[in-house]
Amino acid sequence: MRHPKQTPTRVAPPGKDAGKHLVHRLDGSQSLDTAAATSVPPDDAVELRIGILLWPRFPLLSLAGLCDALRHAADLGDQSRQVRCSWSVLGLPGTRITASSGVEIPVQEALDSGTKFDYIAVIGGLLPFMDDVEPHYLAFLRRADEAGVPLIGICTGTFVLARAGLMKDQLACIHPFHVDDWKRMFPKARFATNCDYVFDGPRISCAGGVSIIELATELIRVHCGPDRAAKVVHQMSVSQRSSSSHIARRHALGYASADNEKLRQAIILMEKNLSIPLEISVIAKLVNSSSRQLERVFLAETGASPSEFYRNSRLKYGRWLLTTTDSTINDIAFECGFSDAAHFIRHFQQCYGVAPGRLRKALTSTGTRVPSRSSETSTS
């Protein structure tokens, strides 16, 4: 996959337009003139195409989060042309789908084989309305599956895929609110609740809510590159101001500070994104630096590379969770951005010289913390 070369541009000093300058930097030094905004992009310029199926009483947040992430990645600035990404609501021409809030969304494009899309995303709705759809919708999903197009289940969209027999024993990411519904409807189907999304072969499932932004950002990173993903993170999910959750994390990490402004900003970004770590190249762009420059600063100021510092911060946060909460080792691993408990345990032992379970037991026996109600080996 080829990506356009990024040409360095002059960065304005911090001020009220700093956010716009960062977006322009992530977009590269290409022109943002008004005349260019009227041109129609060629089809071969589109790197990520997503067709969207809406089920009755779907959540607007899932649709808005997906479309807004794609539009930020698709074009320069805030023009929102479908240049590098495209998206369309599919269905029966002339019809509208009612969201759970009562807002109606019109169908933009008729159902076809689905082969023009890289993914077909199903945004499910309220479960009592799951069967209130035309048979054409399910037939379309089956044709897309037969054509090898990956299917995405968003919120209860995963229920739709499972009901249609399209999950094929794939692991499903289910929102905790719907766990009992999933167990009742698909008692033998595997599921996870401790993540934002799951990739399992030709199926992707997402819990819904704000998790859709995380999934969309990952798809954009894979298809369009880290610069597009960084722009989405900046526009939709990263704030320069502290939040209560960030304050809690800074308390857990010891209020790390730095005189170097780029280093300080990079550390804040790391602290805000422990559960789903950002790529170092993305962090570098967000602080108006390069990966090489950022590594030099980290090595000079902290004695560790950005990746090492980031991992150690996640482990430190994990140690704090281990000693102050009753969370399982598995849940702590996911909360700290590790793919599974085994990776977390191995890195934790390398860093602290003791397995997390042994540390917890030792502290429990000395009365340092409240005894855990959960087992270390739990994978719930």
TrEMBL record:
Top-level taxon: Bacteria
GO molecular function: DNA-binding transcription factor activity; sequence-specific DNA binding
CDD domains referenced in this protein's UniProt entry, alphabetically: GATase1_AraC_ArgR_like
Gene3D superfamilies reported in the protein's UniProt record: 3.40.50.880, Homeodomain-like (1.10.10.60)
Cross-referenced SUPFAM superfamilies: Class I glutamine amidotransferase-like, Homeodomain-like
Keyword terms: DNA-binding, Transcription, Transcription regulation
Pfam families: DJ-1_PfpI, HTH_18
HTH araC/xylS-type domain span: 264-362
SMART domains: HTH_ARAC
Protein name: GlxA family transcriptional regulator
